[in-house]
DNA sequence: AACAGCAATGTTAACGCTACCATTTTGCGG
DNA sequence: CCGCAAAATGGTAGCGTTAACATTGCTGTT
């Protein structure tokens, strides 16, 4: 019967549980952490007290002494635009399973300043590790400069050689090659490209592969449109390309959104897809399979990617030497590509 | 010249800064927190020491004594499928501005168990407040049962009367009414609906409004398809409806994805949109404006919604009585709706 | 029956910060 | 030049946990 001063309402602590169970707080800790040796009888008493008092271990106190917050910071750049950000959901789920908390910062633009601010935000919080999506050279540079001790997985198609940081991404080159090979295999000799924003690695790589594939096949470079991954510019650029004399027989869209715009541009001009024009996309976004016509595209397996990211991250946290393979995309063949008409 | 035992590497603490600046740690605290009274000269010394040592205030220690983690937990249900989850980006940005950290849990399914687990996860972490997206009755019930002391904004179209919790959502009813009015105004007398998963409030409401609007106009109920918000079922259900005798002249899609499926179904059957069939969607997802034809739809202003959510949340944290208005959606008129053909 | 040796439990001291109160310094009117 | 209020600074006690070590209570061996 301990008399308690009727203090302010305060959640129960280990000591409260200890008193209720008639043991020391250390014993409570042993039960809670499942470590150490405790008699079944003692454990039962403690568990009962815990249940009765609705005890929860205080994360702050724990973090204070262990110097571990069990938190992972995730920095999302250009969050909603490109597909890869949905990878985040996978990361989060996996992390929670592993007992981590996931904090997020989603950036409107992946500028140096924004990245820097976000990294600082997380360092203030004391995250154990970070995942940073760095789509551009600038953001990648800021990231590598900003992360210091903190283990970090950088999701980027750029190059990273810095101890403690590991780069991870889809094999953009392989994906783009697949798309181009598919078009070339269907006999297309004049292939346009709708590029994403050219400050992004992914857009650069996809465009470079388009050029190289054409050159390798001994073909002249096709028309190029540049956009922002989105459908609006996909439409206007595609329209411009298709209205020009000598229009291409195929379009390689840098994203499904851009390809979607191309589909409509063709429709508006009375060009039939895939009979008169083949279109291929990149991402396999939701709904791509129900476009008119269903879009052939390159799929990126976000689930696998998320898992890989988190695997690398936990490895890094535990101080292992981490090397990760790139994740391979795959081709989803639907109905927007057909053999080129022999002239 | 204090002699330091060459201990393990440890981030500098307030005491370290204090020693370096020749003041007490209390003074350092005053500078760091910007509270209390400090001479400009002292402040400069302290700031210099902070810069030199790369001092960062330890969030865990601070949380321990203040009992405030400055963290908001966000629970996302069915994250990637429906539009509303992208609201999260807005919430996050705003919260970070306000000095909060945002932790996320994204649920595959909004079942009682998942919601419960996520809420517990956040309570373990000691979040100051939560945002829970509860699309279904089941998840809403679990949410209201699970949140206890923690202030909580529930994003749901369901009903919430519980002190400490406040419901917030788009005015689904207004949105659906707009869509139906638009169709009715164009003279459509036979309107089908492609509903979302019927365990979700939003799907229920949109369907109910569809029914009611028809009844109010003195029209018989039109054909109904039920799906999962996605394009695949949108296609098959729309196709079924359009192949039946007495096909409707308009389709009200529960989501843009479903409407997208309907667009293709019509195309496959040689039904021209909007000449022979009007289609309207809901969400205004990216790309909707570039479909064939560009989709007329109901837009939900996610930015405003995110802001409203966070406003309510901070109010709740500070113990104010919070009542929030629903956010009104708006109609985006494009090209998929035309006057009904007079038979 | 005594005692090593181990299992079970308890004691104590940080961890780095804020809150509260005590003390020192400063400015200024008389 | 004193005194006194106000401003500036310092001292100390927790917050709730873990970690290292100390102690107690058993078991089994000789």
Written description of the protein model:
2 copies of one chain form a homodimer. Chain A contains 12 helices and 11 strands. In chain A, the strands form 3 sheets. Chain A has a 5-stranded parallel beta sheet with strand order 2-1-3-4-5, with helices on both faces. In chain A, strands 7-6-8-9 form a 4-stranded parallel beta sheet, with helices on both faces. In chain A, strands 10-11 form a two-stranded antiparallel ribbon. In chain A, α10 packs across α11. The structure holds a DNA duplex (30 and 30 nucleotides).
Provide a short characterization of the protein structure.
In chain A, 43% of the residues lie in helices and 14% in strands. The first copy, chain A, has twelve helices and eleven strands. In chain A, the strands form three sheets. A five-stranded parallel β-sheet of chain A has the order 2-1-3-4-5, with helices on both faces. A four-stranded parallel β-sheet of chain A has the order 7-6-8-9, with helices on both faces. A two-stranded antiparallel sheet of chain A has the order 10-11.
